[in-house]
C-alpha cells in the first residue's frame, strides 16, 4: 500500500472516532459494522465491474437472496406447517422435475428443424404451470393459514446462524450461475437493464411468497451469533470487566460489547474476502480478467473463453453480495423484504465502487466505508445545519418544518453529486487501479 | 345480454385501464427511445425527469388553485402543464450541458453515459424529495367522471357498468395529439429527418452537415417535454408519489426494448403491449367466464394466470423474455 492509501484510511478512521466522541460510541460502532458490510458488497461488485467490466445493477436481488438464506438456515422449523404441507410440496417438487425432464426430452427428440419445437415447448410449459400450481397453491395456502400472526411460513432449518453465511454464498452463487447463463449474452446497457429487472423479480418473489419468507409481514428474532445484552449483565466476568475498566453505565457497555463482537466477526469475513480477492487479482487469472475487460475481442482472439470467464466472475461477485446480505440480516436480527430498494442496495454500492476506484479492492473497501458513513451521517449534519440557518425563525414556521423534513433526503442529493463529480474529475477513484 | 355484461366487465376492468396506462407508458418510452437513438445510452434518470415535471405541474396547479384560476370542468393541471414542460426541458438541457456534454466531447463509452445518468437519477431523486417531500399528492380537480358506473347501468340496463374517468379521456386525447405531432415532426420535417439520419449513422450525418449539438439539443427538448407530459398524466390519473417514478423506470425500459430501441413507433406499441399484459395477466377472469359459460359451467378457481401481487413483475418478465429471445424488439432497433 502506498502512503496515499494510508492517509485516506487514516482520515476515515478519524471520522468514525469523531462520531464516537461527539455523538456516541454506540452509534459509531453500528455505523462501523454497516460500513464493513457495505465494504463486502462493494468488493463483490468490484470483482464484477472492476475486474471484468460487467455492468451489473442487480446487486439488490443477490443481497436479498443472501438475507433470505440467513432466515431459512437459522430460524426454527415450523413443525405444523411441514406436517400439513409436506405432501403438497413434495408433489409439486416432483411435478416440477417431471416438467423440466419432459421439456428437455421433447426438445431432444424433436429435430432442430421441426416446426413443432416451439409450440410443444410452450404447451408443455403451460401444462406444467397448471400441474405444479394444482399441488403448490393449496399447500402454500395451508402453510400461510397456520398462526399467521407469528408464523405462517415454513420456518427454517434451525442451524447456527454463522453457518448461513457460507450457505448464502453458495445459494447466491447458484442463482448467479442461472442468471448469468441467461443474461450474460447481452452487452452493456442491455445487460444492465436485464439485471435490474431480474433483481426486481427476485424481490417480488420474496415479498409475495409468504410461505417461504413471511413476505411483507417480515421475519423478526433471527438467532444471534453473539450474546444478548440482557444476558451479559448476568455474567460475572462481564460485570467485573466493566468494574475493571471503570465504566459506570453497564447497559451501554453491554450494548457496545455486543456491537464489538459483531464488528470482529464482520471484520474477519471482510479480511478473508479481501485477501482472496487480492490473491485472485494478482494471479494470472486476474490479469486475464483485466485483459478481457480492456479488450474483449483481443482476449478472445488469444484463445480465452470469454463467456465462461464472465460467468465465473459474475458468480463470484454474486456470492460475495449474498454473503453480505446474510451478514446484514444477522446484524439486524430481522428480514424486511420491503426495505430492499434499488437506490439503497444497488446504486449506492455503485457509488461506493466508483468513488473508491474501480478495479482496486482496497479502493472498493474504502468506498464502502466512506459512502456508508456519509449516507448515515448526512442527516445529523444536515439537521445541525438547518438548525443554524433557521435559528432566527420560529420553530413551527413552514420553512423550518419543510427543511427539517427534507434533510434526510440530502443523502440522495449528496450521492448524486459524489458519483457525478468523481466520474468527471477523478474517474479512476480515490485509490486508482495499479 | 350475458355477452353484453361480459363485454362491459372486460372493458371496465381490463381494456380501459390498460389503454390509459399504455398511453402513459408509451409517452415515457418515446422519451427514452429518442435519447437512446440520439445519445446512445439507456437513460436511467428518465423516471426522475417525469417525476420532476409532474412535481412542477403540481406546484403550479396548487398556486393556480389558491389564486382561484381554473378552467372547470377540465383539471387545472392542464393549465399548469406548459410551465411544467418548460421547467423539465430546462433541467434536461442543464443536465446535458453540465454532465453529458463532457462525455460526448470525450467520446466516452455508452456505459459511462449510463452511469452518469445513475448519478443524475440520485441527484434528482434527492432534489424532488427535498422540494415536495416523499408523500402522496392528488391534484385532480374538475369533473371526476365522464360517465359513472351507476349512470352507465341506468342508461343501458346491464348488470355491469363501464365507468370512464375524465382523466382517462384526457390521457388518451393528449397522448394522441402528442404522438401524432411527434411522428409528424420526426418523419416529415427537416430537423426530424436530421435526427433520424444522426441516429442511423452518426458519421454520415456529420458529413452531410448536420450539426450534432443541435440534434442533441432537440432530443433533450423532446425527451423533457414527453417526460413532463407522461409524468403529469400518470399522476393525474392515479396519484403522485416520488417513489412510484423510481419504480416505473423498468416498465418504461421494457416498453422501449419491446418496441425496438430507437424506434418511436415501436416505443408506442411497446407501451401498450406492456400495459395490456400487466393488466390482463393479473386479472381474474372468473366473473367474465361466468357470464359467457353455460349455466352450471362456472369456473372453480379465479382463472387468473398470476396473482395480482406480481403486477409489476409481469413487465420485468416480459422485458427479460424479449431481451433473450428477440433483443432487437418488434421493430428492429439499435445495438450498442
TrEMBL record, chain A:
UniProt topology in membrane: Multi-pass membrane protein
Annotated keywords: Cell membrane, Membrane, Transmembrane, Transmembrane helix
Domain of life of the source: Bacteria
GO cellular component term, pick one: plasma membrane
Main location: membrane
The UniProt record lists the keyword Transmembrane helix: yes
MF annotations from Gene Ontology: branched-chain amino acid transmembrane transporter activity
UniProt key word Transmembrane: yes
InterPro entries per UniProt: ABC_transp_permease, LivM-like
Membrane-spanning residues: 7-25, 31-47, 54-75, 81-106, 118-137, 157-178, 190-208, 256-277, 310-331, 337-355, 362-378
Cellular localization per UniProt: Cell membrane
Any matching Pfam family: BPD_transp_2
CDD domains (alphabetical): TM_PBP1_LivM_like (cd06581)
Protein name listed in UniProt: Inner-membrane translocator
Species this protein is from: Candidatus Endolissoclinum faulkneri L5
From TrEMBL, chain B:
GO process annotations (BP): amino acid transport
CDD domains tied to this protein: TM_PBP1_LivH_like
Membrane topology category: Multi-pass membrane protein
UniProtKB keywords: Amino-acid transport, Cell membrane, Membrane, Transmembrane, Transmembrane helix, Transport
Record GO cellular component, one term: plasma membrane
Keyword Lipid biosynthesis: no
Record InterPro entries: ABC_transp_permease, BCAA_transport_permease
Coiled coil: none
Keyword Transmembrane: yes
Subcellular location: Cell membrane
GO MF term set: transmembrane transporter activity
Record field: transmembrane: 19-42, 49-65, 77-99, 111-132, 169-187, 215-236, 305-325
Cited PANTHER family: AMINO ACID ABC TRANSPORTER PERMEASE PROTEIN, BRANCHED-CHAIN AMINO ACID TRANSPORT SYSTEM PERMEASE PROTEIN LIVH
The family this protein is said to belong to: Belongs to the binding-protein-dependent transport system permease family. LivHM subfamily.
Protein name in the entry: Inner-membrane translocator
Organism field: Candidatus Endolissoclinum faulkneri L5
Amino acid at each position: 500500500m502506498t502512503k496515499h492509501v494510508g492517509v485516506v484510511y487514516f482520515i476515515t478512521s478519524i471520522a468514525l472516532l469523531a462520531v464516537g466522541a461527539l455523538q456516541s460510541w454506540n452509534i459509531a460502532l453500528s455505523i462501523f459494522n454497516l460500513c464493513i458490510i457495505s465494504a463486502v458488497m462493494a468488493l463483490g461488485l468490484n470483482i464484477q465491474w472492476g475486474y471484468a467490466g460487467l455492468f451489473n445493477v442487480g446487486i439488490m436481488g443477490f443481497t436479498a437472496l443472501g438475507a433470505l438464506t440467513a432466515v431459512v438456515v437459522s430460524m426454527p422449523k415450523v413443525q405444523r406447517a411441514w406436517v400439513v404441507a409436506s405432501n403438497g410440496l413434495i408433489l409439486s417438487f416432483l411435478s416440477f422435475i417431471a416438467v423440466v425432464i419432459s421439456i428437455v426430452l421433447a426438445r431432444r427428440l424433436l429435430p432442430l428443424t421441426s416446426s413443432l419445437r416451439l409450440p410443444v415447448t410452450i404447451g408443455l410449459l403451460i401444462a406444467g404451470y397448471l400441474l405444479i400450481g394444482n399441488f403448490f397453491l393449496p399447500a402454500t395456502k395451508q402453510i400461510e393459514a397456520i398462526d399467521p400472526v407469528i408464523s405462517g411460513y415454513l420456518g427454517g432449518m434451525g442451524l447456527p446462524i454463522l453457518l448461513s453465511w457460507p450457505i448464502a454464498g453458495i445459494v447466491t452463487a447458484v442463482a448467479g450461475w442461472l442468471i448469468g447463463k441467461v443474461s450474460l449474452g447481452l452487452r452493456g446497457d442491455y445487460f444492465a437493464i436485464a439485471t435490474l429487472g431480474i433483481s426486481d423479480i427476485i424481490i417480488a418473489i420474496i415479498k409475495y411468497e409468504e410461505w417461504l419468507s413471511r413476505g411483507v409481514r417480515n421475519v423478526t428474532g433471527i438467532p444471534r451469533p453473539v450474546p444478548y445484552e440482557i444476558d451479559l449483565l448476568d455474567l460475572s466476568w462481564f460485570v467485573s470487566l466493566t468494574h475493571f475498566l471503570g465504566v459506570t453505565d453497564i447497559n451501554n457497555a453491554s450494548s457496545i460489547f455486543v456491537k464489538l463482537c459483531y464488528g470482529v466477526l464482520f471484520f474477519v469475513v471482510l479480511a478473508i474476502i479481501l485477501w482472496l480477492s487480492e490473491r485472485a487479482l494478482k494471479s494470472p487469472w486476474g490479469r486475464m480478467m483485466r485483459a478481457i475487460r480492456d479488450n474483449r475481442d483481443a482476449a478472445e482472439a488469444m484463445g480465452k473463453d470469454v463467456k465462461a470467464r464472465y460467468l465465473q466472475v459474475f458468480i463470484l461477485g454474486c456470492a460475495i453480495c449474498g454473503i453480505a446480505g446474510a451478514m446484514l440480516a444477522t446484524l439486524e436480527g430481522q428480514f424486511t423484504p420491503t426495505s430492499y430498494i434499488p437506490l439503497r442496495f444497488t446504486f449506492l454500492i455503485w457509488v461506493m465502487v466508483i468513488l473508491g476506484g474501480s478495479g482496486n479492492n482496497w479502493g472498493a473497501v474504502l468506498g464502502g466505508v466512506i459512502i456508508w458513513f456519509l449516507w448515515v451521517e448526512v442527516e445529523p449534519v444536515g439537521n445541525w445545519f438547518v438548525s443554524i440557518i433557521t435559528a432566527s425563525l420560529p420553530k413551527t414556521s413552514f420553512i423550518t418544518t419543510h427543511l427539517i423534513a427534507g434533510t434526510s433526503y440530502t443523502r440522495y442529493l449528496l450521492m448524486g453529486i459524489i458519483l457525478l463529480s468523481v466520474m468527471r474529475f477523478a474517474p479512476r477513484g480515490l485509490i486508482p487501479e495499479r | 345480454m350475458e355477452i353484453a355484461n361480459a363485454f362491459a366487465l372486460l372493458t371496465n376492468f381490463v381494456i380501459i385501464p390498460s389503454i390509459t396506462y399504455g398511453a402513459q407508458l408509451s409517452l415515457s418510452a418515446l422519451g427514452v427511445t429518442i435519447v437512446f437513438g440520439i445519445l446512445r445510452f439507456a437513460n436511467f434518470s428518465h423516471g426522475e425527469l417525469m417525476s420532476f415535471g409532474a412535481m412542477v405541474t403540481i406546484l403550479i396547479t396548487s398556486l393556480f388553485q389558491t389564486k382561484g384560476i381554473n378552467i372547470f370542468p377540465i383539471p387545472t393541471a392542464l393549465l399548469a402543464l406548459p410551465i411544467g414542460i418548460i421547467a423539465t426541458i430546462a433541467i434536461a438541457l442543464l443536465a446535458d450541458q453540465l454532465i453529458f456534454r463532457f462525455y460526448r466531447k470525450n467520446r466516452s463509452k455508452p456505459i459511462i453515459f449510463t452511469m452518469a445518468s445513475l448519478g443524475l437519477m440520485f441527484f434528482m431523486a434527492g432534489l424532488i424529495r427535498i422540494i415536495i417531500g416523499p408523500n402522496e399528492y392528488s391534484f385532480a380537480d374538475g369533473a371526476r367522471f365522464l360517465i359513472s358506473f351507476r349512470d352507465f347501468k341506468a342508461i343501458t340496463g346491464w348488470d355491469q357498468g363501464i365507468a370512464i374517468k375524465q382523466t382517462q379521456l384526457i390521457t388518451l386525447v393528449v397522448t394522441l395529439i402528442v404522438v401524432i405531432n411527434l411522428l409528424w415532426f420526426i418523419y416529415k420535417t427537416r430537423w426530424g429527418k436530421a435526427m433520424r439520419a444522426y441516429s442511423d449513422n452518426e458519421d454520415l450525418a456529420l458529413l452531410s452537415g448536420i450539426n450534432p449539438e443541435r440534434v442533441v439539443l432537440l432530443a433533450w427538448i423532446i425527451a423533457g417535454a414527453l417526460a413532463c407530459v407522461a409524468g403529469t398524466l400518470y399522476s393525474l390519473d392515479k396519484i403522485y408519489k416520488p417513489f412510484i417514478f423510481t419504480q416505473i423506470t423498468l416498465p418504461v425500459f421494457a416498453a422501449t426494448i419491446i418496441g425496438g430501441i430507437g424506434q418511436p413507433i415501436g416505443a408506442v406499441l411497446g407501451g401498450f403491449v406492456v400495459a395490456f399484459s400487466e393488466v390482463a395477466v393479473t386479472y381474474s377472469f372468473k366473473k367474465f367466464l361466468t357470464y359467457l359459460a353455460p349455466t352450471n359451467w362456472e369456473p372453480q378457481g379465479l382463472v387468473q394466470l398470476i396473482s395480482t401481487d406480481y403486477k409489476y413483475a409481469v413487465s420485468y418478465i416480459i422485458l427479460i423474455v424479449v431481451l433473450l429471445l428477440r433483443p432487437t424488439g418488434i421493430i428492429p432497433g439499435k445495438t450498442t
